[in-house]
Design a protein that fits this description.
The structure is a homotetramer.
Chain A: E1 2-5, H1 11-23, E2 27-32, E3 37-42, E4 59-63, E5 83-85, E6 88-90, E7 96-100, H2 107-120, E8 124-126, H3 144-157, E9 161-164, H4 171-177, E10 180-183, H5 191-198, E11 204-207, H6 214-226, E12 232-236, H7 254-261, E13 266-268, H8 270-274, H9 277-290, E14 294-298, H10 316-332
Parallel strand pairs in A: 7-8, 7-14, 8-9, 9-10, 10-11, 11-12, 12-13, 13-14
Antiparallel strand pairs in A: 1-3, 1-4, 2-3, 5-6
Chain lengths: ~350, ~350, ~350, ~350
């Protein structure tokens, strides 16, 4: 961390900053510039709140030098983290596709969806039993009944299942059924939930919050990792910007950036990232070209009858066509799908 | 809700949309424009997910006409909601000031802070016992011990206390101590928590999420209200934008906008809204001039020693001066402080 | 400027950075941290492009320490800049109000508007003769005819006039008529235009671009100032964010921030900052409370017949009422209107 | 266009809206909803400013139904626009690569750069002679001398050249040298410049402004097209968001969205879109996968000595490697490079 003093800072101000730094058992390194004195803080500053120094007299601002995440960082671990989910390897050489409906709506719907995505070549079945909805009056998911139907769909197809968990107290129940726990974008900084999934060993699929920076996402991963669960999968699903033509702005830069900064697998979600079914295919391909380890795609047997997110779900024939294009692209990129 | 058809939409597409609308027991009203056919949906569309219609063939987009919130809306309730907290009226004629440190750090610190803000004229004491921190390695709050110290500070000063609750399972415990439950910005769409505080009768102070629209904030309020707890206080605390000079961009427009759209009290938080102690005073005054019902301000006996948010906390002498200016301004505006 | 090396940087990388810095006649100051070596660059780095150093091997990133603006900065000038426009002092003790229609539409319209705002107490008349419109098919302004009508309105009322100039080649013509040249938000980084108005001595009213940071605005002011025209007035008029309820998000923080960083006068524009006539009054008051030196407000004799921006224009009776409230508030704040 | 009335609107308000619509020679179509009356406006509303209706009593808001751009739209033109620049076809089957340094710095630099990009397989040479710089103290380009050097590089390599024009008065001069005129992001809404390039027949490369929506970009294209110059190339180069790890957020969604909405060619600029040389390759590939017609990439013989944008320029060996990867990818995608 460095502390930039104002041009008007007095020697006594600098002394006060030094004294404060030393109270934390850290050392300083002082550099006098043309206008500004810059105080470097040497030592382990990980748990320091840099903004606390900004209130001292004569301080203009502070700048963090080290990344605030440790276990999530590339430096922490040699090689990429590969997570094995019932034989499906996420983060390894091959591309992994997670697909299925936004919500579990009925036994026949989820079974039909599971067979469709399985036959098209997807590796993991998605489906929401607990749905975070903006409106309290919207369908909130089938709850445990939905989890049971997902488990039945897994039985029928052999596909591992991923489903969202919305609260810390639901973690044990969802763990009984799911192969991967999903944390939704709105809960990315629900720290009680992050702490709860940090204490189990199920893989966690962590979606980037819609106004979260890349660093924020990695800090939320750090909560889970530092709790002892090392099976974290990162997901870019679009951020909120001024653009309104699409539901979100898919931050394609985040894919290679996350791969540079972290050893964790990175998945792209073009359904949420665009909000429009007819933009899913080009963005799905862009994700693979940019280095994503896989994709999450919403597919519904009849999107026009979906209870949620129909607008960003593919119908079966379009998903099949997309899968055959993605299979060829993955092969071309040297990351063949199993 | 209206459904805008593409210029290329065929009669069969329009028929399909009509059929789909009628399945929900709603009626249509068709308007043929130069290029676009527009289908108006008549009836109660509150629980309808408009985006589901966007997947139908020939549909270009949908536009919601009615506000999706009901109980939170101005139309729902004649007059402003006034919430009485141990005699302090929030949302009434007088301006209300909530002040105190970011975190409860020790007995002496919170007691000292409580006396300082009380003597300066604040009406409610704030202080965090459970702290949502970006880093798992930062101070996470004193927990129940912090709640007890807050209660002791209330005893000593007579000030009601407001403190944050981070998870649904902590609601009963926090209710035992707090007079107002605070939901932080990161938890604004933590629906399990909203549901939990909707079932108690303690006033809830709901902070706007940093990437939440005004409508999103009112929808989160709607979760609490529709659960049966009508004591909701809204808080504007700044949103995330491209500007980096300040920690957040304080959305001053939101204050009169929320007062127009809703009957709920609206509080401004210039500490988080700026992130800089030397911008708190002008933004605090701007909030009152724009029609806020009160303010939440971070104050610490010695900000340079604060464990969190020192950079955006006022020291006692500055808070006293600000309070005397705010008192005069409130008086001028016809909203005198008690 | 400081240069942060990667943890993996080699001694040769550090040597290369030092050599590169020294080529610019600057000195280095090296500080070894736990993980990162930090190289401080000492000397006049104003004209240096910091990003050029980011391409050197082993460099993680660079951080600018000094503000990149000079003449616009508080440090440059003792006291506030006060600009005298035909006797109206902008940036001095008193609050200044600029008001009038978005566009000059006809002789009778602008004369009527001028008399209305004059009688209500405004100090300067605004009106657009050249209109930057998003659509090439929209009304583009009356051009020189509009300038002549503005001059006639000045004659009739004695009010100085402010009007927009859109291109460098139009500067001489607009200078013949206008008392203040307005640079619109979309042209804030039109450097040819900034250079052109930097060479005349007419006061320039520089509106913040809708995605410009506070620093960007001051850098654009610096273009004008460094050209030799010291009569620059800054205007906050809202920025573009994800919020759609209002046309722009008025960045109230920018008002005290600009007053801290610069000696130039700062004006708020609540018409553009909200886009809604019924939000103008509360935001206008908030601007004064936050320390603005004045306001620009759109007023039209009959907003419902305006050719542009009717939605954010006040009708005469509402403007009169607002002016009487603002006069009292300015008085209260110790900044009486003349 | 539709006009949504407030629930509280009176019959007289509705009558006033109808009368106002009819003044423009348009018809209305009225639809009574549960709470809101919705007035559809039928006829050519292209030149109508929808916001003018928002000031009428009882109006809640207005919604535009038709796209405000005409000539730029898919509906206007059967098939894609293909622009032939000295034999290089932009917007056709094959992918086109534009490459070269940010600025022309010297004769040897631009000639060396031209040979490097030519040999690596690029089709068009880029280089700035007039540079829009945030700081008036930064290098502003070599001006006409730079244009001459670019022409010499074209002579030497046969590559057509693209260079930026910053002001309307410079258009004739730049036209003498350049094969394609570039409009930079900061000038995307400099309407005088758009009008000037609309009157010549040189192809125009229009970069999206950093806070411009997809619709804004198409409206700026419309300015040029409606002026009579049909040779417009659109460029996505990243938008400004809250993310700070990258210089801009590359809006990959915009690529397929623009191809859907318009017949104009779409080029991606991963140098500006990321600001980091080590993210250029993955984003360049993502652009092709998403359907871009080509790329603009900054390449410098020695980026560590570049006078501008070194951080986002590739060095020759990296560019060569990237070109060979892009060539294979373009081939795979059925869009081979010539």
């Amino acid at each position: 961390m460095i502390i930039v003093m104002k041009p008007s800072a007095k020697p006594a101000d600098i002394q006060q900053v030094i004294a404060r730094v030393e109270q934390f058992g850290l050392k300083v390194h002082i550099s006098e510039g043309e206008a500004h004195t810059v105080i470097g803080v040497v030592g382990d500053t990980q748990s320091l709140d840099q903004r606390n120094f900004e209130v001292l007299d004569g301080v203009e601002r502070t700048v963090r030098i080290s990344q605030p995440f440790k276990v999530a960082s590339r430096e922490f671990r040699e090689g990429d983290t590969v997570i094995d989910v019932n034989g499906v390897k996420i983060g390894g050489r091959g591309i992994v596709i997670m697909a299925g409906p936004c919500s579990v709506e009925s036994r026949s719907q989820i079974l039909e969806a599971a067979h469709i995505v399985k036959e098209a070549g997807a590796h993991i079945l998605r489906g929401g039993a607990y749905k975070p909805r903006t409106s309290p009056y919207s369908f909130q998911g089938l709850g445990e009944e939905g989890l049971k139907l997902l488990a039945e769909a897994r039985e029928a197809t052999g596909l591992p299942i991923i489903t969202e968990v919305m609260g810390a107290s639901e973690v044990p129940l969802v763990c009984e059924y799911a192969d991967i726990l999903q944390i939704g974008a709105r809960n990315m900084q629900n720290y009680r939930l992050l702490q709860a999934v940090g204490k189990v060993q199920k893989p966690v699929f962590l979606k980037r919050g819609m106004s979260s920076t890349i660093q924020d996402l990695l800090m939320s991963a750090e909560y889970i990792l530092s709790g002892g669960n090392y099976n974290v999968i990162l997901c870019e699903r679009g951020i909120r910007t001024f653009e309104t033509y699409t539901r979100n702005t898919f931050d394609i830069n985040a894919i290679p950036a996350l791969k540079q900064l972290s050893h964790l697998p990175v998945i792209g979600d073009p359904s949420h990232g665009t909000g429009k079914w007819d933009l899913i295919a080009p963005i799905a391909k862009a994700c693979l070209a940019a280095g994503a380890d896989g994709l999450m795609i919403e597919v519904h047997p009849r999107p026009e009858e979906a209870w949620s997110d129909g607008a960003q779900s593919l119908k079966p024939s379009r998903f099949e066509r997309l899968m055959s294009e993605l299979r060829a692209l993955a092969e071309f990129l040297g990351r063949p799908m199993s």
